[in-house]
Amino acid sequence: MLLLLSVLSFGVIGCSGASRSGGGETLTVNEALTQIQGQGLSVSPLRSLSPGFAQDGLLAETEYGDRIRIVEFQNTSSASMQVSRKSSSAGSSPFFYQKGNIMVVHLGNDSRVEDALEAVLGPKEQ
């Protein structure tokens, strides 16, 4: 039921930085991208994503050829639920990171990308 309500609210709230519930730090996709780029990593947006289970998303490519998906959820608990579900089924790349309502999926193995993501988002999920 909660997932259904989250999906229904997708079109109402958008990604304008409106207040979100659920505790923890909240960021927009663009804020997360700016923080990642602030680590000295050159990241070029490729296209917007509408994942269906989240509010907003972006697919981007790093200067090293690795791709990252940045996904914004309504709240921290929704992001945590998706990260837990995805991480338990992955042994290697893709790698999952979470900070508040943001989930980042790293598609690649470049340690410089991992270092930048960990500096912003904390350690990857196991």
Task: Please give a structural write-up.
The chain has four helices and five strands, in the order ααβββαββα. The protein has helices at residues 2-13, 29-37, 76-87, 111-121, and strands at residues 43-49, 56-62, 67-72, 95-99, 102-107. The protein is globular, with a radius of gyration of 14 Å. The chain has 126 residues and is of the alpha+beta class.
Q: What would the keywords be for this entry?
A:
126 residues, five-stranded antiparallel β-sheet, alpha+beta
Number of strands: 5
**What structural class do you assign from the helix and strand content?**
alpha+beta
Helix content range of the residues, please?
25-40%
Radius of gyration: 14 Å
Query: How far is it from the N-terminal to the C-terminal residue, by CA?
Result: 27 Å
Strand content: 15-25%
Low-confidence stretches: 1-23
Average pLDDT taken over every residue: 77
What's the SSE pattern?
HHEEEHEEH
Q: Helix tally?
A: 4
Major sheet characteristics: 5 strands, antiparallel
Strand order of the largest sheet: 1-2-3-5-4
Overall morphology: globular
Indicate the topology.
Blueprint: H1 2-13, H2 29-37, E1 43-49, E2 56-62, E3 67-72, H3 76-87, E4 95-99, E5 102-107, H4 111-121
Antiparallel strand pairs: 1-2, 2-3, 3-5, 4-5
Provide a brief overview of the structure:
This protein has helices spanning 2-13, 29-37, 76-87, 111-121; strands at 43-49, 56-62, 67-72, 95-99, 102-107.
